[in-house]
Give the backbone structure.
Amino acid sequence: MQPIESVAVIGLGYVGLPTAATFARSGLNVLGIDISEHVVNTINDGRIHISERDLDILVHDMVAAGRLKASTAPQPADAFVIAVPTPVNADNTPNMKLVDSACMSIAPVLKRGDIVIIESTSTVGTTERAARLLAEARPDLSFPDTSPESADILMAYCPERVLPGATLHELVANARVLGGLDTASSDRALELYRFFVKGEMIVAPARAAEMSKLTENAFRDVNIAFANELSMVCEELDIDVWAVIRSANLHPRVNILQPGAGVGGHCIPVDPWFIINQAPETARLMRTARETNHAKTKLVMDRITAAAKGPTSPIALLGLAYKPDIDDLRESPSLEILDGLLEAGFTNIMVVEPNIDRLPDVYQDKAVRLVELAEAMRESEVSATLVNHTAFKQTRELIASCRHVIDPVGLLR
């Protein structure tokens, strides 16, 4: 088999773009594919459309070197990496339409010897389904599900495992799971990721690799749910949850996480539903964890509305991102709280989010404005610390000066 010289990455978001740039830095020729012309034009100009530490420098350098380009249409390559979003529907069922569309988009340019790798978080069995979809689109080619060890096109699942804000480091340093549909696919995936991965690489069956990604985030969700439930119990019993956690964590085998305003991000609030939907009668603990974390967000919103004198009361929400010190708003509990306040008729809402320059377009004509912290503290009657941003930690005294502070993240503790 010919050595891998070119890679196409489908989806240029928070995972796809860093992955594409990292492959390019390793010496491969990389084409990034995205349906957004704005994203494609931005990258081809040597710039980025997301916020990620040092990514702007890397993308600029790789584009300037001619090793990274972007396009709205796939072209032939030796390897195809699918890194598109996988949300859930309104009823919490998995939505795999973007993965399916990505497969269909690359089908016309596949050639014998290529490998297709799915990085998108997926339901168990997605890699097999992708092979069937591609086989229907390209009956002239064989795939590992029907021609194991002798397929024209190899297929594997290799879930991303990165921390926003440290993605470029974690892409290289973290362990990776390579789940081929057959041994030949796993071996080829290993060859591809060896270009830059320094962490341990483990080979597993595709279905096990798919489940491992879901398990990582379900584990986190369950542990966060314990902390959030504990915070609600302590509030009911008038106990300082932060003191309880500090004391309990002195035990050498106890490590309770920190409670917050809920759970956000593109993974943890979403991925457990993939398991729950495939084993609804068995995954009872995971379902309860999802419901608990959502209940904590509603509780915080209820506390804000109860503290306000009325719908015209000026309210300040401190933090809109789903975690500290990033600009990523995906599935943020802060957004859910903001939406709830707007739906309840509040007309004077201020948002302080030091990591963004403007509110999402959906809020442009609504009763909310992005302001600096000093203005929010000067004008608000009620403020809520929703994210533990470093910028907020450095201004605790100013935040504490607000007339009524609701502090679900323990910023003032």
The domain at 215-406 is CATH 3.40.50.720 (Rossmann fold). The longest strand covers residues 6-10. The two ends are 60 Å apart (CA to CA).
